[in-house]
Amino acid sequence: MKLNGIYLTGVGVHLPEQVPLEDAVAQGDCDEAQLTTGWRAARVAGTMPAPDMAIEAGKQALARSGHTPGDIDLLLHTSTSHQGPDSWMPQHYILRNTVDREVPAIGLRQGCEGFLAGAELAACYLMASPDRTAAMITTADNFGHPLIDRYRSHHGLVLGDGGTAAVLSKREGFAEVLAVNSFSVPALEGMTRGDEPLFPPGCTVGRKITLERQATSRPGDVTPQEAVVIAGKVEAEAVRQVLDDAGIEIADITRVIHPAAANELYLEHFLKPLGVGPSHGMLEFGRWNGHMGASDLLAGFDHLVGAGDLRPGDHVMMFAVGPGMAMSYGVIRILGTPGWVAS
After folding, report:
1. Which residue segment(s) compose the domain that 234 sits in?
2. pLDDT tens sequence across 100-110
3. C-alpha span between 290 and 20 (Å, rounded)
């Protein structure tokens, strides 16, 4: 979807303590085999609730944006793991502790592509009425709960904790969101469902989440080879469409921000069809944080902006894949250096 006049005015992050993998192995929390996979460290929040990380990131994004709470007309919160008591909705808690306005607060469960899916919905909401000014999107996860093991749920994957936020606005900001497109791939729905029964839900009976088992015990309606072909076709169309909507070519892309990964083979699968190499991605940044669920994209973007790695006129492509299967792609143009970096 081509966007008109939707800007990023502020981003915020809350990244907890960085725990080196060697320390996690020495403490008995992580198997030594993970040291060979490329991961270097994971962000570990301890007992800090995920919504509280979203609040900290949201406050920072709002302060950096130059907006007041009264400018925020929508709050979207997205996550990949449990946030608090069942039947409780964390987005209202986040709203109360950030902008504290009687505006819609909506939760999204889109997995790792939650920020981009939220950006598309927020842009539609803002463009639908001239009276609306800005929207806040927050993300957060703490994988330290008993239902998942951040180091052992999947060989080759380390999960990190963190919270991020962004303010999208119709007022001009330091970056313009040119296009965002989200896709679903129904044929691959079973890839992360595995053979686990749908009822009773696993969390209600204390069943631990084993991502590797879910990924390898999927229903047999689609073979792994067929899945690669199906996903590849959707990816190619998604890239073509988002570039067309943004009015640029792949050669115009300066950096690609993606879910955290620890090795180049993973990145090549996604970046090769784009015609760019792993050096355009966020490999090293991800290795030192772990896969932070829905927070990877904004955390990576904040890192590039804060480090001065992006200049006016640069184009950033974001992409993410979520369980189900869902894919989202977005293109952002850098317009200037934000005040919090310049100062």
Report:
1. 178-336
2. 999 999 999 89
3. 10
